[in-house]
Amino acid sequence: MKNSRLTRSDTVKKETAIRIICSLLILLFAYAGLSKLLNHDFFHAQLLLFPVLKYAEPVLSRLLPIVELIVVIFLIIPRICLVGLLASFILLVLFTVYLIVMVTMHLNLPCSCGGVISYLTWKQHIVFNLFFLLVSFAGIKLQRKVLRQSFPGIIGLPFLS
Predict the structure, then answer these.
(1) Do 42 and 156 meet the contact criterion of CB atoms below 8 Å apart?
(2) How far apart are CA 127 and CA 148, in angstroms?
(3) What pLDDT is stored for residue 114 in this prediction?
(4) Are 112 and 42 in contact (CB under 8 A)?
(5) pTM of the predicted model as reported, rounded to 2 decimal places
(6) pLDDT at position 121, please?
(7) Residues in Cβ contact with 130 at an 8 Å cutoff, skipping those fewer than 6 apart
């Protein structure tokens, strides 16, 4: 009986940590997506200034905020938050790699970020993204452990392996 309580206690702690991680990512992506939608003209103009991205701007300016808000929905719903965590991780990897390339090439990048984030240098922004990458990675690992404990007989799901 003692072991089952310990396991249940560990699961509750992991689930609490997952909810905290999802909440942080919800704040990040809700803020990012809504600010892009509410200031669409500014976001659109900023994308045109980005090297490489200016060619994809018509699609990106409409699709990116919607994708960010869909990620928020996935993160809110506990049964599918693993999908949201994976999507968060992928988006953060893509954006961080892009920033690293642009900073390495010493390009003067415009910032379409709002609020406090707009005061960060690009190198600080990379560190900020790396922090959230680690947060989303930790969430993925924890969620996979919880799912494996809750559904030990499930096989064939590659993201649970």
Answers:
(1) no
(2) 32
(3) 65
(4) yes
(5) 0.84
(6) 84
(7) 96
